Amino acid sequence: MTHSAAPTLIRKVLCLEERFNQKSYIAGRPEKNEWLATIGAELCRVELDSEEDTQRVRVVAERLARTEWHTTQQLEVIPYLEGTPAGTSRQADVLWFDQMLYVAQLPKAKLAKLVPEEIGKPSSVVTISRRR
């Protein structure tokens, strides 16, 4: 690989997304968690230094406000690159896909760590700081 091809490869790897394997077992109905909707609604009001960053965070916040929580007994995800499967399936504890947050049946303490990490992924390229 040439040095000039590295940025293209990095962009492609950063576009890797995980999708829910529909064969995984899902029990019960999705739930609307008020705290997810509240955080999403509040983040929709954010104003950052650039309009581009503001819009990116607000898009994620709107999605979060509409997200439903679905507890599963088993959660399996498959990596995709540019819409094409790019690897083998693996077990996961949490997956935020579309407007559904899939979570494995885990202790609340573990979910308290994993859920914020998962919902923070789409906006992780933005550093949010206080405006002066």
Question: How does this model look, in words?
Answer:
This protein has 132 residues and is of the alpha+beta class. The protein has one domain. 36% of the residues lie in helices and 21% in strands. It contains 4 helices and 7 strands; from the N terminus they run αβααββββββα. The strands form 2 sheets. Strands 1, 3, 4 and 5 form a 4-stranded antiparallel sheet that branches. The protein has a 3-stranded mixed sheet with strand order 2-7-6, with helices on one face. A hairpin with a 2-residue loop joins strand 6 (94-97) and strand 7 (100-104). Helix 2 (34-43) runs antiparallel to helix 3 (51-66). The longest helix has 16 residues, at 51-66. It is globular, with a radius of gyration of 17 Å. Mean pLDDT is 80; it is low at 5-13 and 125-132.
